[in-house]
Amino acid sequence: MAPSHLSVREMREDEKPLVLEMLKAGVKDTENRVALHALTRPPALLLLAAASSGLRFVLASFALALLLPVFLAVAAMKLGLRARWGSLPPPGGLGGPWVAVCGSGDVCGVLALALGSNAGDGARVTRLSVSRWHRRQGVGRRLLAFAESRVRTWAAGAGEPRARLVVPVAVAAWGVAGMLEGCGYQPEGSWGCMGYTLVREFSKDL
Questions:
Q1: Could you read off the pLDDT of 145-156 as tens digits, one per residue?
Q2: What CATH number is given to the structural domain containing 94?
Q3: Which of 8, 50, 54, 102 has a CB 3.0–4.6 Å from the CB of 146, allowing a cystine?
Q4: What is this structure's pTM?
């Protein structure tokens, strides 16, 4: 159960730098595990080996030919994750971004929502991050409960037949996946690269 002293409100403009740092820190906590998961799949290892073999005919250094493809692949993956989850989205039809604020006034979490592309798709969580100093204290559950309430209100006002919330989760974020399953969310799909999952999607009919 989330602590009673937690409140959720729209982010103020002066809080934007702090929230951006929180999002970037959250991505950094996950990106290395995602990169390790992706680059140790057999197709990725095969491609890296082929790239290294080709570079050996161009570069004089065997070590450089071996490490350069790995470095470039990790850098590209990290940049992609930071661009997707490490920045603030523009305000959407559901308002926000939203921040969780503890009793001392410190911002300890951030949430952003977006409407689905089609009617009946419900809404998606596009950003959900908790300060590393406030994790495992109910902040994520409080933000999720707020998101569900917001989506229900929007669906009722828009005359939608149902309210539905989708939450994407990086494959290495086992704690977030466990929290979602504990809150009644079900895995419904995934996307990735070369047939291997990088991001799983959880959904819940509200």
A1: 999 998 888 888
A2: 3.40.630.30
A3: 8
A4: 0.77
